[in-house]
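User: tokens in, sequence out, please.
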């Protein structure tokens, strides 16, 4: 029987999180949904643990570590259902977290992707960095959220308890229509990890679909489960993939002016890393620039596939610079339409 929803955890050496969170996830999964663990060739005992303790959980074993993007693409291609939920292994779900999301998506076929409200697992009254109450992006490609701008995390006091359209939904807990996912080719394999969900969401919006936050659904996220925050490879991926994101999705008239300013701003960030004693992060910025130039032709070809939709989503980009709002104007909060000092 074709299931309505597949909740898919992409695992890589995450036995600890599977042991901590999987039982609760299974308990909170309705009978019309299936929990699947897609394993990216883990070298720990994740697979024996699952086989011994969760024999009824479907396991998809990838033949190597494909990273987040391709790892999910390989796994999801093997599933037949109406909706996917891409769920990080370090997520604690709550009762009835699935039902309001699916009800919302079934109410409007133009809603292609939805995220729950994301709170911090360790500081449970606060929003969590990766998604908070829905994602947005500024004109230079800097992502931010309702409830989280840079490292400022708000306490959840119900201020964002209305469903609304957002620019991107977090890959930590991403519900997406399977037919739209397949239509757009899924996550971009070349991103490997980080910001691939923003790229997917931008393409979804370019094709006329909606992306929504459903705060009736709440999950708690540990964060940094695969790569710690202070990691130069993560710095490289964030800078490189941000450039790829802009190269693929900006309108032609905005592409080169935006990349020109971003490279200047990246040099400032690199200098800050160096002054703070983070030499590896300093180097990672320039490795990211080299990757942009090396793969410029490849990603230019990818953007041509999107031009048929005239980059319609650009109108929903925040057309200011959050660096100015945050550091100069001291506006550390975004309510979904404008920045505030609070």
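Assistant: Sequence out:
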């Amino acid at each position: 029987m074709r299931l309505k929803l597949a909740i898919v955890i992409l695992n890589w050496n995450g036995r600890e999180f599977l042991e901590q969170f999987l039982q609760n996830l299974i308990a909170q999964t309705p009978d019309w949904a299936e929990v699947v663990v897609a394993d990216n060739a883990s070298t720990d005992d994740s697979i024996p643990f699952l086989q011994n303790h969760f024999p009824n959980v479907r396991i998809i074993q990838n033949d190597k570590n494909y990273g987040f993007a391709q790892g999910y693409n390989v796994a999801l291609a093997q599933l037949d259902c109406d909706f996917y939920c891409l769920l990080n292994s370090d997520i604690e779900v709550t009762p009835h977290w699935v039902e309001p999301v699916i009800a919302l998506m079934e109410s409007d076929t133009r809603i292609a992707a939805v995220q729950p409200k994301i709170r911090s697992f360790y500081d449970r009254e606060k929003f969590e960095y990766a998604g908070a109450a829905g994602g947005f992006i500024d004109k230079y490609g800097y992502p931010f959220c309702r409830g989280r701008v840079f490292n400022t995390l708000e306490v959840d006091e119900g201020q964002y308890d209305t469903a609304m359209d957002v620019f991107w939904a977090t890959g930590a807990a991403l519900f997406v229509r399977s037919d739209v996912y397949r239509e757009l080719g899924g996550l971009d394999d070349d991103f490997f990890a980080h910001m691939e969900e923003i790229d997917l969401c931008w393409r979804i919006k370019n094709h006329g679909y909606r992306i929504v936050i459903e705060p009736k659904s709440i999950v708690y996220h540990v964060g940094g489960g695969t790569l710690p925050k202070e990691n130069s490879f993560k710095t490289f991926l964030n800078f490189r993939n941000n450039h790829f994101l802009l190269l693929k999705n900006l309108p032609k008239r905005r592409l080169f002016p935006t990349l020109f300013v971003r490279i200047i701003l990246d040099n400032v960030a690199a200098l800050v890393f160096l002054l703070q004693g983070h030499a590896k992060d300093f180097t990672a910025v320039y490795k990211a620039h080299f990757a942009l130039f090396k793969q410029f032709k490849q990603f230019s070809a990818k953007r041509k596939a999107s031009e048929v939709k005239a980059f319609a989503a650009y109108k929903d980009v925040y057309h200011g610079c959050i660096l100015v709002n945050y550091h100069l104007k001291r506006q550390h909060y975004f309510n979904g339409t404008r920045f505030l000092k609070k």
